[in-house]
Structure formats: structure tokens, C-alpha cells
Design goal:
CATH class of the largest domain: Alpha Beta
Order of helices and strands: HHHEHEHEHEHEEEEEHEEHEEHHEH
Oligomer: single chain
CATH superfamily of the largest domain: Type I PLP-dependent aspartate aminotransferase-like (Major domain)
Distance between the termini: 31 Å
Strand order of the largest sheet: 1-9-8-5-4-2-3
Strand content: 15-25%
Radius of gyration: 21 Å
Structural class: alpha/beta
């Protein structure tokens, strides 16, 4: 049996090696490394998969979020609301553009942004909301979109962890994660459900004018070469990464099903363990399980992770320090204890190996080790 990995990219590659190798070699032979046919084909295939009008590939997920805020003409001092329980990149781009991050707590069931907390945080300076579709399922978009409409706010979805997830609106409409707000942004970092073999990202929108503007901004602010109408950046998805993503996109639904099946096995194994709280599914969103994240209940999370590590079973803590308690985001508005759900999660959650190649044998070893510690400690 192979060593257990948090994400087994080698085993995944071996199953599609012939397709990947051919795609990469074809790009090398064409020498069309930047904005070549593979990028354009991937863009079109991604649009078809998501059911969105525009996909704009870019260099990484952080750029995706930054470019959307640039294209919306947000100005220094404008407030942007997002969750404190998320990866730093979400707030990082807000601060880099001299906007004001406004952090709020998350829902204790789904770990996604708390809609009531968003409502209370809206001020005359608020210009946008950035819901993060955390760990693989959508934030509650229907009330968030209603809030945004009522207060004339933009919505930028951070869908780096939930590509392929679907959200159901009360009227029966079903939309893809990242395609409901003004913009969505995603990352193709190798460990993502749809990951390339380097850095990559993309922006999604159904707005033709916004798509045109963000596409120009990602290309040095030019739509015609050497004629620069905007201050832009250089943010491109290269052709080799696009070729790889085209192959993996064809397998994405299968990858999602494999993750969901693995999550179901974990759920069943831990269902009767009082020391563990299994991840809940939102009633209005599918879950694509970028992470399978447990909460400890009355036992030490850190000791659990150490116990697993001693048995060569990796486990990750996402995220040990909430954004409002990070040194870089120190702000007199925020004090310890203000966001009780976020702070509790940062002390109790840990994620188990979750990937498309996770075998039943590997998973049983993980389950046995987790239960061994949880049973003794409880």
C-alpha cells in the first residue's frame, strides 16, 4: 500500500498519464505557450461546464480576486465584507488595494459566512461582499444576493474550494458555485479539486461589460496590443497548464463523486463517536469535499493531529488563527471573543486525507487511528 497523502497527485497523474503527457508535448511542439489555442479551448469548455457566459483565465486564485475588485472600481476606504474563517488571500487582496476588510463570523453548521452577521456589518461605506464557499459547499447565496440587491452591493464569490458545487435557490433555479454573483474567482492550485501542475486561476461572470474590463486589466490594461486604456497587471494562465486543466476537467465529475463517496465512508465510521462532529451538508448546496473537516468535541484537536502524525497519517488544520487575530490584520475594531464560532473552529477543526485516489484500505487505517485516539481520550 502506498503511503497515505493528504492529496495523492502522483496516483491521480498515473491514471491519466497518457492523456496528460500527450497534451503537454503537443503544446511544446506548437510553441504556443502564452494565450495559445489550449487556453482558449479551456476557457470555452469551462464556460460550458459551469453554464456561465465568461471565464477569464489568469495566473492564480489571488489574482482572480484582485482583478475583480479592480474591475469594479472599488476605491481606497471602501468596505468589503468577508469571513474571518478563511485563507488569508481572501482578505489580503482587499487590503492590498487599500480597501477596508470588514470581517464577520461564520455559520456554526456549514462554516460559511453568517448571513445575519453580514447584514449587521453593512454600513454606508460597504461596497461588496465576498462569500467564501469553504471546504466544498456553497455559502447561502439566496439571502446574500437579496442583501446585496437591497443595499446596491457587489458580490464576489471565492470559489477556490468548491468548483463543481451546485446551489439551489428557493425558486428551483440551480447555479454553479462562482457563477451567482457579479464575479467568481477560483484557484487551480495543484491540490484543488480541479488543479493544474503549477499556479493558475480563473474569473467567472455573466456580465459582458465586466468580462471585457477584467480581461483587459489582466493583460496590462490593453485590449489592442500596445494601446493601454487602463492600469492593469500581467496575469495569465499559460498554455501548458490550460492543456492539463482541459484533461482534468473531463474527469472532474468523477473526481467529485470519488470524494463524496470517501466522505460518506468517513461519515458512517464516525457517526457514533461523541468525540467527533462530522461535517454537515447545507440543504441548498451540494458538497464537493475539497476538505473533509471534523470538529473535536471534548478531546484535544492538536493531540489528535500529533497522534495521527506518529502513525504516518497526515492531517491538516485549516485554519489555526482566525483573520481578525492575525498580526497583519490587527485592527482596533476586532477583539478576541468577538467571533465565537470562528474562534472555536480554529481550536477544534482538523481535516483528514481527502482525494480521488483514496483507497478503502487507506481510509480504514485512517478511520481506525482516529477512533483509537477519540475512544481513549473520551
Amino acid at each position: 500500500m502506498r503511503p497515505i497523502q493528504m492529496v495523492d497527485l502522483i496516483s491521480q497523474y498515473e491514471k491519466i498519464q497518457e492523456e496528460i503527457d500527450k497534451a503537454v508535448i503537443d503544446v511544446v511542439r506548437s510553441s504556443a505557450y502564452i494565450n495559445g489555442p489550449e487556453v482558449k479551448s479551456f476557457q470555452q469548455e469551462m464556460e460550458d461546464y459551469l453554464g456561465v457566459r465568461h471565464v477569464i483565465p489568469c495566473a492564480n486564485g489571488t489574482d482572480a480576486l484582485q482583478l475583480t475588485m479592480m474591475a469594479l472600481d472599488l476605491q481606497p476606504g471602501d468596505e468589503v465584507i468577508t469571513a474571518s474563517f478563511t485563507y488569508v488571500a481572501t482578505a489580503e487582496v482587499i487590503a492590498l488595494l487599500k480597501l477596508t476588510p470588514v470581517l464577520v463570523d461564520v455559520d456554526p453548521v456549514t462554516f460559511n459566512i453568517d448571513v445575519d452577521a453580514v447584514k449587521k456589518a453593512i454600513s454606508p461605506k460597504t461596497k461588496a461582499i465576498v462569500p467564501v464557499h469553504l471546504f466544498g459547499q456553497c455559502a447561502d447565496m439566496a439571502p446574500l444576493m437579496a442583501l446585496a440587491k437591497a443595499h446596491d452591493l457587489y458580490v464576489i464569490e471565492d470559489t477556490a474550494q468548491a468548483i463543481g458545487a451546485k446551489y439551489s435557490f428557493p425558486d428551483g433555479r440551480v447555479e454553479s458555485a462562482g457563477c451567482m454573483g457579479d464575479f467568481g474567482g477560483t484557484s487551480f492550485f495543484p491540490s484543488k479539486n480541479l488543479g493544474c501542475y503549477g499556479d493558475g486561476g480563473a474569473i467567472f461572470t455573466n456580465d459582458d461589460a465586466l468580462a471585457s474590463r477584467v480581461r483587459m486589466m489582466a493583460n496590462h490594461g490593453q485590449s489592442v496590443r500596445y494601446y493601454h486604456d487602463e492600469i492593469g497587471v500581467n496575469s495569465r494562465l499559460d498554455s501548458i497548464q490550460a492543456a492539463i486543466l482541459r484533461i482534468k476537467l473531463r474527469h472532474l465529475d468523477m473526481y467529485i463523486e470519488a470524494r463524496q463517496l470517501a466522505a460518506q465512508r468517513y461519515d458512517e465510521a464516525f457517526a457514533d463517536c461523541e468525540a467527533l462532529i462530522t461535517p454537515k451538508r447545507a440543504s441548498n448546496s451540494t458538497h464537493v469535499f475539497h476538505q473533509y473537516t471534523l470538529q473535536t468535541n471534548g478531546i484535544s484537536r492538536d493531540e489528535m493531529v500529533a497522534f495521527l502524525g506518529e502513525r504516518d497519517i497526515p492531517a491538516m488544520i485549516y485554519y489555526p488563527v482566525p483573520l481578525h487575530m492575525q498580526k497583519a490584520y490587527t485592527d482596533e475594531r476586532y477583539k478576541e471573543g468577538m467571533f465565537p464560532v470562528t474562534e472555536d473552529l480554529c481550536k477544534t477543526v482538523f481535516s483528514l486525507p481527502m482525494h480521488t485516489e483514496l483507497s478503502i484500505e487507506q481510509q480504514q487505517l485512517i478511520i481506525d487511528a482516529v477512533l483509537a485516539f477519540a475512544t481513549v481520550e473520551n
